[in-house]
């Protein structure tokens, strides 16, 4: 097959590609750094003549042009697999909604759902000599999306890093309907994490002390997981492995410090496995054509069976708040949407099934409101409307700046006592009083 000729035959302008979208269509808009740019701009010009167009995507790293049209809610709906700040603003404008699902289930959802994509539009790396367009740091669920889409439009970006994998990290030109050559924008960066606070560093020290040589790491996004990564990079730990949902800058620092070899991994030995990546240019440069790193679909990276097959698996994730029953909320502030389910529960469960594995839910004990009030992240019960990301039966280790506690298998009074022990001292007495009212506090328990 003459791939170069086929490429020219399928090459169209962004405006021509945008014509593929019709009123009532379901349109997949890529994932994270792969959200289209040139076709998005062309489609935004068409949107005023269209109605009821359903878009799907997630973790937007810039505001799409289709969001900027007049009265977007009259023409489109954005359905997000995982919310970010841009999408939260769109919720308030009445055209963005979260689609609750365990992230690991996305490939199966696409393959079995009755709502197949009418059109898929996303950025890719330039075609290789074998006719493949690499998904860049976005393998995630993109292969399943392509398998089920009626029309596939790829927007080539010469700046997209080529992320090597083992499977489902690219789409072949024979499956592509249209090719658009955009303006090769710089790959969007997820800014450097804010400088670690004293609280972040205190939590990180507690977690790192629990990590043995040869452990396999999963880090969530945020200041605390990044602080853990920075501390690991400076530690004496060795022969660490990586198997994670999201690849973040902290892994690059740990790898460059010589801590990651993957030598003790029972599967994918020597490879750093991830479903998608977002970070700074340093991260994209490190991932480009790096055979040590393995881009893989999310139903593999987040599969509890894959996670549990790796000895000494260490899962490290954030929480918004939690209650005295051990219910963890990582998705909302009451009814105000913040994030999504992602893969946190998969890693909490998988890590506990791992030989020697541990999962850590970490958070600061308090936060300060805009008007200066100090509030506890540890609550008697979750606020109305808050989402339970990890049930009370699932949590393993809880870590705040005041300590680390293992909550697995504790009865309600033991769990309440342990959780209160790592709460901010200012709030402990009122938490104890609440626990007493809820009949989860023993009189013998220490005040």
What does this structure look like?
This protein is of the alpha/beta class. It contains 15 helices and 25 strands. The chain has helices at residues 3-10, 14-18, 38-46, 85-92, 106-112, 142-148, 198-208, 223-234, 249-256, 281-287, 298-301, 304-308, 344-353, 412-421, 425-437; strands spanning 11-12, 26-28, 53-57, 76-80, 96-98, 119-124, 132-134, 151-156, 170-172, 178-181, 216-219, 241-247, 272-277, 293-295, 313-318, 321-323, 328-329, 332-333, 336-337, 358-362, 366-368, 374-376, 378-379, 397-400, 403-406. It has an 8-stranded parallel β-sheet with strand order 1-10-8-6-2-3-4-5. It has an 8-stranded mixed β-sheet with strand order 14-13-12-11-15-20-24-25, with helices on both faces. It has a 3-stranded mixed β-sheet with strand order 17-16-23, with no helix packed on it. β16 and β17 form a beta hairpin. α7 packs across α8 (223-234), α8 packs parallel to α9 and α14 (412-421) packs antiparallel against α15. The longest helix is centred in the C-terminal third of the chain and has 13 residues, at 425-437. The chain is globular, with a radius of gyration of 23 Å.
Which descriptor suits the 3D outline? globular
Number of strands: 25
Uncertain stretches of 5 or more adjacent residues: none
CA distance, first residue to last residue: 76 Å
What would the average pLDDT be, to the nearest integer? Answer: 95
Our Rg estimate from Cα atoms comes to 23 Å
Largest sheet: 8 strands, parallel
Strand content: 15-25%
Helix content, binned percent:
25-40%
Strand order of the largest sheet: 1-10-8-6-2-3-4-5
Q: Structural class per helix/strand content? A: alpha/beta
